[in-house]
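Q: Here's a chain of 75 amino acids. Please give me its 3D structure as tokens.
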Amino acid sequence: MRNLLAVLMILTIWSAPAAALWDGGHMRIAAMAWEQTTPGARAEASRLIKLNPDYGTWLAAEPKKPDGTREDVDR
């Protein structure tokens, strides 16, 4: 029983980096990639994203400061 518990604890700790595959980690990686793109690539990516039918829903869910302007909430 102790061995099983030890193995489960090790697997739990070892799998923690997989959190980058979920929302928070994915968004951080996307932000880092966005910062490294050229202005032309950003413009094209923005154009393509706006073609998605759910774009309005995404924009409505974006966090905003009390004055209504957008803000990067991770910084």
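Q: Can you summarize the key feature?
A: Residues 64 and 70 are 5 Å apart (CA to CA).
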